[in-house]
UniProtKB/TrEMBL annotation:
<dbReference type="InterPro" id="IPR006258">
    <property type="entry name" value="Lipoamide_DH"/>
</dbReference>
<keyword id="KW-0274">FAD</keyword>
<dbReference type="InterPro" id="IPR036188">
    <property type="entry name" value="FAD/NAD-bd_sf"/>
</dbReference>
<dbReference type="GO" id="GO:0004148">
    <property type="term" value="F:dihydrolipoyl dehydrogenase (NADH) activity"/>
</dbReference>
<keyword id="KW-0676">Redox-active center</keyword>
<keyword id="KW-0520">NAD</keyword>
<dbReference type="InterPro" id="IPR012999">
    <property type="entry name" value="Pyr_OxRdtase_I_AS"/>
</dbReference>
<comment type="similarity">
    <text>Belongs to the class-I pyridine nucleotide-disulfide oxidoreductase family.</text>
</comment>
<keyword id="KW-1015">Disulfide bond</keyword>
<dbReference type="InterPro" id="IPR023753">
    <property type="entry name" value="FAD/NAD-binding_dom"/>
</dbReference>
<feature type="domain" description="FAD/NAD(P)-binding">
    <location>
        <begin position="6"/>
        <end position="328"/>
    </location>
</feature>
<dbReference type="InterPro" id="IPR001100">
    <property type="entry name" value="Pyr_nuc-diS_OxRdtase"/>
</dbReference>
<protein>
    <recommendedName>
        <fullName>Dihydrolipoyl dehydrogenase</fullName>
        <ecNumber>1.8.1.4</ecNumber>
    </recommendedName>
</protein>
<dbReference type="InterPro" id="IPR050151">
    <property type="entry name" value="Class-I_Pyr_Nuc-Dis_Oxidored"/>
</dbReference>
<dbReference type="Pfam" id="PF07992">
    <property type="entry name" value="Pyr_redox_2"/>
</dbReference>
<dbReference type="InterPro" id="IPR004099">
    <property type="entry name" value="Pyr_nucl-diS_OxRdtase_dimer"/>
</dbReference>
<dbReference type="Pfam" id="PF02852">
    <property type="entry name" value="Pyr_redox_dim"/>
</dbReference>
Length: 470
């Protein structure tokens, strides 16, 4: 009889866990995956990436019809919102994809252990009363919303909600207040702004989108303001009272000062996410968390406890689905005796607003800091989308592409883009960074015309000397 029930047990079936499970099975291992949700796919497929993109995509069509963008192209329509139908197509998208993972589990002979998993010891996990043993256990439990003291989320009432509640609102709020000018606040704030809500975004810092390049942060703020989102930067929320269907928020300048109040019929709390580790029984295996509540790992995704590894949102690094997926593949490869590599310096990030906002590699400030504060050690160039023939023709003039390169070696250190299809364009930049491209390599690569991607080529030409079209 085998020593363990399984070669690998994965806890959590999000992009980190389900991908690890499938890859491990492909590599010939006997695999089980524990998931407490009714459906597979984790945050990403159920209440994250996929449903938010379904609402962003649909609301973008509505906005284009409502704000005159379609009329500008000779299409006269007066849109009428059918919100239940819009939600239906969101639910359909989620259902199709989560069922798809179920199919892939069956196809690859991954056993789904339904229920909440808790460590008994490093090789034994209890799921719904069953003790499952495995030679290696991978923690891929993901993350959930960081609570804001004094602002209690209740998705069932729909007045103070988190991202899950904000995806499902049964009617368009008159005034939505978004707490947090990060990715969720701007994506979901955009959805409801497009569908007719007045949206106010309250951000603690004096700029939105922390972690992105400063030029991108400034320019996107201008664009969101132009679209009608109002911002209160450098402001902290100190409390929230709810009476019936109305919320009153108390806030004050982050640096201290007079407080003021703001009324809303919907408040979205989006101030970040934190790892899911409660009830996992980490005490039973003696695994401690770092100061940020994350599980520390080495480059083979091993935790401090022998036989236990971890990937995805519950470990340090950006909380992104594609980062979790790549770690899922790599951890399975290590477990199978191969070498699994994730280049954490080249993980693209995309905000799926219109225009999209994307970046990969270093920001200008990070590149200068890495060069010991020497601004001359790097070269940068920005090419405006206004001067890109395809963007101009498509009535999408907002944004730019910015290339940051090492002044001595010309190696590209970072690429940032605001463009209608920046999320797609950034893949080319990521490939360039992965292959160690110079700005000259990109500038002399033939790009199809007319495409938005030519803006990346021209920004690279700008680092070289001069682009053609500005
Ligand atoms: P998760 O997807 O969180 O999955 C973890 C799973 O583990 C969950 O299903 C949970 O139920 C299960 N679990 C937890 N504890 C246990 C336990 N003890 N026993 C059994 N099961 C357990 N990222 C992008 O890259 N692009 C996007 O467009 C994007 N959009 C997003 C939009 C929203 C609104 C949100 C909230 C997030 C978005 N993200 C996006 C982030 C993305 O969803 C996460 O980075 C990704 O899901 C992390 O994957 P994971 O596998 O680490 O964890
Ligand atoms: P975030 O970290 O992107 O932004 C949170 C924002 O809230 C920050 O700007 C922060 O300064 C601000 N903030 C923090 N405390 C505050 C307070 N008390 N008052 C006002 N503002 C405050 O977090 P968000 O938007 O909640 O997203 C969570 C995670 O989900 C992100 O890490 C992101 O990676 C992931 N995600 C990714 C998406 C994508 O890739 N397109 C889409 C949605 C989420």
């Amino acid at each position: 009889m085998a020593e363990y029930d399984y070669d690998v047990l994965i806890i959590g079936a999000g992009p980190g866990g389900y991908v690890a499970a499938i890859r491990a099975a492909q590599l010939g291992l006997k695999v089980a995956c524990a998931e407490s949700r009714e459906t597979l796919g984790g945050t990403c497929l159920n209440v994250g990436c996929i449903p938010s993109k379904a609402m962003l995509h649909a609301s973008e069509y509505f906005d284009a019809a409502a704000n005159g963008a379609m009329a500008d192209m000779g299409i006269d329509v007066t849109p009428k919102l059918n919100l239940p139908k819009m939600h239906e197509q969101r639910i359909d998208a989620v259902e199709g994809l989560t069922k798809g993972i179920e199919f892939l589990f069956k196809k690859n002979k991954v056993d789904w252990k339904k229920g909440h998993a808790k460590f008994v010891d490093a090789h034994t996990v209890e799921v719904a009363g069953e003790k499952v043993t495995a030679k290696e256990v991978v923690i891929a439990t993901g993350s959930s919303v960081t609570p804001l003291p004094g602002v209690e989320v209740d998705n069932t009432k729909g007045v103070v909600v988190d991202s899950t509640g904000a995806l499902e609102l049964p009617k368009v709020p008159k005034h939505m207040v978004v707490i947090g000018g990060g990715v969720i606040g701007l994506e979901l704030g955009s959805v409801w702004r497009r569908l007719g809500a007045k949206v106010t975004c309250i951000e603690f810092l004096d700029q939105i989108l922390p972690g992105m390049d400063d030029d991108v942060r400034k320019e996107s703020l201008k664009i969101f303001k132009k679209q009608g989102i109002e911002f209160k930067l450098g402001t902290k929320v100190t409390g929230c009272t709810v009476k019936g269907k109305k919320a009153t928020l108390a806030m004050e300048p982050a640096a201290g000062g007079d407080s003021e109040t703001l009324e809303a019929d919907c408040v979205l709390v989006a101030i970040g996410r934190r790892p899911n580790v409660d009830g996992l029984g980490l005490d039973n295996i003696g695994l401690e968390l770092n100061k940020r509540g994350q599980i520390e790992i080495d480059h083979e995704f091993r935790t401090a406890v022998d036989g236990v590894r971890a990937v995805g949102d519950c470990v340090p690094g950006p909380m992104l689905a594609h980062k979790a997926e790549d770690e899922g593949i790599a951890v399975a490869e290590w477990i199978a005796g191969q070498t699994g590599i994730v280049n954490h310096d080249v993980i693209p990030g995309v905000v799926y607003t219109m225009p999209e906002i994307a970046g990969v590699g270093l920001t200008e400030a990070e590149a200068v800091e890495k060069a010991g504060g020497d601004k001359k050690a790097i070269k940068t160039s920005k090419f405006p989308m206004m001067a890109n023939s395809r963007a101009k023709t498509n009535h999408e003039p907002d944004g730019f592409v910015k290339v940051i390169a090492d002044a001595e070696t010309d190696r590209v250190l970072g690429v940032w883009a605001i463009a209608s299809v920046a999320g797609t364009m950034i893949a080319e930049a990521a490939l360039g960074l992965e292959f160690g491209a110079t700005s000259e390599d990109i500038a002399y690569t033939c790009h199809a015309h007319p495409t938005h991607s030519e803006a990346l080529k021209e920004a690279a030409m700008g680092v070289q000397g001069k682009p053609i079209h500005v």
